[in-house]
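Can't paste images in this forum, so I'm doing it all in text. The chain is below; anyone willing to post the predicted structure tokens underneath?
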Amino acid sequence: MFRIFAAGVNRLKEKFDIVTLSVGSEGSRSMKLCQEAGINYLEFPNKPLGAKFNAGMYVMKSFDPDYVMIMGSDDLLSTATFEKIHEYCLQGKEMIGFTDLYFFDLYDKKLVYWPGYGNRGTKADNNRKGEAIGLGRTLSRAILTKLNWQPWRSDANSGLDWWMTQRLKILKASPTVFSLKENGLFAVDLKSKENICHSLLYTCDKVDNTLLASHLTEKEIKSIFNYRDQYVKQTWGVRQNLQGKLQVFMPLFSECLLSYLEESSGIY
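Text version of the structure:
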């Protein structure tokens, strides 16, 4: 999946002056992928996530950037979305982000739309309505300096978006946010049954897969579907093997082990 992300970043590099850094935890395998893609690499333990993210941000400081954008290795941003963020950067905004997102369910080959925080009906979520999601958050050098280049709580393993938001509130920062859907823009998070709460995908609104072609290159789309076929073939083989051996005696254990093996399978 990292190669898909790298292709998307390199598309943006053709038009913008971008320095990229990937923080990984799989040693030489992660480093080799980054070297092949021309992406700087930092090795750091995967947990706690807050410490890992902060380590990456602190290294970014050495590149003396005007702004730093946060993305995951399963994320893709359309060129038009990046241009929108770049416009706000030129205006000197402190923090920029968007409030909604598209997910592509690799297993079911389904593109869905998530309207963002504040739409689940819970009090905690309602309090976050209008908050920028994590993907694509872009922080200015000025605000990062105030944060000592450590935007996250170092011992946090979840809720990283929320922790950063709280720190920005303390600084009385003024986030600039916009809606992808309302502006005809696009960003997508490629998800499987293992790297997201799968029930979330089914609470989103299904949209036509042709939207991918409106915002990504033909090569990127082909890579996504090739990866999807590899993923399904591998996980289905594991599923059949495990169920055949364990379903009579330990059906629950079979599903738990299956989830673990799928998560650890590592298709690149």
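DSSP finds eleven helices and eleven strands in the chain. The chain has one domain: 2-217.
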